[in-house]
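To: structure desk
From: M.T.
Subject: fold request, one chain
Message: Could you run this one when you get a chance? Sequence is below, nothing fancy, just the single chain.
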Amino acid sequence: MQDFEPIERGESVPITARFAPLAAPAAPEAKPAAVRPKRKSKPLPDAVAATLPAAPKPLPAEPAAPPASPAETPPAADDAQARAEPAAPETPASGAAAQPPIVFPESIDLEFDIARNSNEARLGRIVHHFERDGARYMIQSVTSAAGISALFAAGRYVQESRGTLTPQGLQPEQFMVRRGRAERTESAAFDWAGSRAMLSANGAVKEWALQTGAQDQLSYLHQLSFLIADPSLPAVSVTNGRRFYNAKLEILGREVVATGLGPVNAVWVRSQQEGESRIDFWLAPDFGNLPVKVRIRDRRGEEVEQVLTGMKVK
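Reply: Done. Structure tokens follow.
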């Protein structure tokens, strides 16, 4: 993802990659209930559908308890109260880890072309990689110049995020940026127990108060599916490795987006940063809410677009 502070021209190209989690499997119910038929969605292109993970198998149903004898049947008033009160959640067995409500595949690879707009030549290319090992995740985004831009921009723009998947979404622990010819490095270390983050840039280390739900620029892309599911669309604190800024979300509607995989139905979500910087995301529900287009506007008013050209999921 592009920085929201100016990057020296000739050293790197501002860019971004966007990702969101896949739909969660339905939880098993204690009693059979009427199931609402699922809304039919537009079939995916064959090249994409072949890479998407199969739906997780449902957990085996527990055997039904034997019917109670008449002597064990509670009074009618007690039975009515039991039906009115929600059942308490089951406590996981000792040593069992809580599972996140959204199931992430083991790996996702996305490729984006970067241009000023759809009518101009390509400026660069982004390769975005997500991988999961149990509840641990690693995300890497590599941006390189392409075409005539490669004559003026040297080096790559590399971002990497590592952390844990939780029931509330992604919880980053380490974030790093390398950019420019000299491979300048910025980083953020998240200390959730101490509610603080240590940012290192240009040889200086700065401590920031760590807000609940804070993200880095890469984990934020995946966290979008959790955030837009909240009707209040809460603001979130995001770091670029040099500082934290607040981002406020707004859902602007639905659009059909032209991509390298063909036309895709998408939800248009705007992330307004502090000042004039903003990012617009087009998230595709048929593609597990992965981003198919991203438009970045920096504080100088300059814009670039990223459009999905390739995808592989396993």
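Reply (cont.): The two ends are 23 Å apart (CA to CA). Let me know if you need anything else for the meeting.
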